[in-house]
Amino acid sequence: MAEIVQILELSVEEAGDYIFSPAGIVMVFKNKRFQLFTESARHNFLRRIVTRHSWEQLFETVNDGGTSARLRDITEEVANKSGPDELSIEAVLQICYDTNPRQLFFLQRYFTNSPSQASMPPS
User: pLDDT of 77-96, one tens digit each?
Assistant: First the structure.
């Protein structure tokens, strides 16, 4: 498994909305590749945003089809919660989910075997 060097939260603001909401977690690895964790239904749209724009633009805010998106570096925040051990994909996703289960409900599918639980936000 490649070493995680950066953890980013991808937030979106829908057209006509005024609040950015977390929509995904992006992990950047030592080999410069990245992996996006988001809702299955939005994965292709959000991946297109991340691949079309430079990281610098994404840290500022980009607009794509009326939807604004931006990245926020949460590496240090997650590392502080994980302890001194090396970060794993599973640990990062668990920490992110535990921090904000209402908006990052889609990460739950990585921790449960029930497919019905994966599509419903927690109450």
Answer: 998 887 656 678 888 999 99
Cβ neighbour number for residue 112 with a 10 Å cutoff = 10
* Segments in the chain forming alpha helices (H): 43-52, 55-60, 75-82, 89-99, 115-118
Work out the mean pLDDT of the chain and round it to a whole number.
86
In a 3-state reduction of DSSP, which class is residue 83?
coil
Q: Return the bridge partners of 4, or none.
A: 29
Quote the CA–CA distance of 49 and 24 in Å, as a whole number.
Answer: 12
Phi, psi of 121 (to 5 degrees): -70, 150
Residue-level length of the chain: 123
Are the beta carbons of 87 and 94 closer than 8 angstroms? no
Give the burial class of 51: count Cβ atoms within 10 A of its Cβ; 0-12 exposed, 13-18 middle, 19 or more buried. exposed
